[in-house]
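Please predict the structure of the following assembly.
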Amino acid sequence: MGDAPLLEVERLTTVFDVGGRALPAVDQVSFTVGAGETLGLVGESGSGKSVTALSILRLVQPPGRIASGRIRFRGRDLVALREREMRALRGADISLVFQEPMTALNPVFTIGSQLEETLAVHGRATGHAARRQAVDLLGAVRMPDPARRLDEYPHQLSGGLRQRALIAMALACRPALVIADEPTTALDVTVQAEILDLLREMKARFGLSLLLITHDLGVIAETADRVAVMYAGRLVEQAPVRALFHDPKHPYTRALLASVPDDRPGTPLRAIRGAVPSLGALPPGCAFAPRCPDRFEPCDRLPPGETRVGEGRAVRCYLHGDAVEPAAAVPGAR
Amino acid sequence: MPLVEVRHLVKEFASGQGLLRRGAVVRAVDDVSFDIEEGETFGLVGESGSGKTTTGRCLLRLVEPTSGEVRFRGRDLLALSAAEMRRVRREMQIVFQDPYSSLNPRMRAGAIVEEPLVIHRMGAGPARRRRVAELFELVGLDPALASRYPHEFSGGQRQRIGLARALALEPSLVIADEPVSSLDVSVQAQVVNLLMDLQQRLQLTYLFIAHDLRLVRHICSRVAVMYRGRIVELAATAAIFDAPQHPYTRALLSAIPVLDPDAPRARLVLDETAVDRSRPLREVAAGHWAAI
């Protein structure tokens, strides 16, 4: 790559002000997405992966707020932008594909009018030109019979076709970065496979960068170039996709991969004991420590800091180094 | 004798009803036949709209079948009166996918688990409370949590409550409809292990309805693959996964994401027009049936 990354998230902390406390949904998270790269952000519910996505687009709603950190997109810090500037950027330079296309699309407008509106709002095209572009976009996402689909309403399309329409909308203004939050979770496995193929194809064709957020390790293995693993608001491991699957370093990543059913039918699965801690009750040390099979003395004291463990790899775990996380930037956030 | 025998099961739903249009009929389940042997885990897989959930509900008559036969220990369930059916249902319980919407939010966990015992007038007073505590322990929950409400539990714990409730009447068949698909990955394995453990301890028979093929491969002894209301393939689990015969089964298996970035991607796309839906199942190998 060489050049500066397209997106640089630096020590992002997003908190939710609840009952007089600032609960860190995203806690000093740093990562980059390079031009043309797919970063897979993987985590379970409550890991902070979706709040990270909303933070990048500055769509976090109260009581949530970005408490500290920087989000540089093409060198500009999005955290410091005015809302008006941010609005111009959303959908045009960075767009979002949601999990549930039925709720993300407006049920009372046709697919065509929603696509045309996206183009018009960002000053890309109006009238006949917009309609022509809308047909082209639906064709690009391999919507069968695009001209006819333009006049249909979201409920007339299948789940897979709705997700295609949503992807067309996300691509309408030729954004540099698409954030896809669980884009295939609501879909059947054969449709999921088609949508993942489509995302890969769109990425290559339009030179996109993709931030793919999912809980599904299989989707990550098939789609991502690099992976960031989140747990309880913190980024615990980052690695190129091959390295992560062949040689996971963090005990959480290892446990997650080991818990997937494998080739030994009928045997007990290697389950992770316990449950993800709630934000209000994070342990003082590593958030995974209470569930960790490799826990030792330092784990319960302070959250581990980032340790480099090879080319493009970092992990937050005392098994791999004794770095300690600097104190939270927000008073009361930990 | 198999525990459950399903023969030529059909469920039709009326669709497109309105002032001007009448009487279009959708066959959600279309001539489905299979047996479930005592003690096995029989998997029913397929995508949304394949009819797998409707089939499961027809077995319990939570949905009334349009035609066909469902026999449980040899008794034809469709011929039973409502009162007789209620008695048979003690032996056939269902665990739902979503532990958030399937538990009454206004009832305490203990009362949710106790309710089937109350309805079927089983035990009373301290004996019933002891039974509830026993059921909590059976599914790995602290009985002290019985006074809490569903929202105070995690997703995995709620699914355990649903399971304790289903087991209250000591059923022999449990229909598990996507029992772990709404749970976090790290919690899914716990619940799957619990299901396998309970099966051993209580000699349960499972009808396991799921779309997660990895999981189905792990816990099912036999699998039926449904496609648009029909069973297109039925065989021992290993045979389905190692030697799938029907083009839909092949396409479905090839779409499972592989947990290895280096694995070759050999996606098979189903040519839907080439699937002859009228073709009956035939035995292509011993115990391996396919509609080809």
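The mean pLDDT of chain A is 92. Chain A is about 30% helix and 20% strand.
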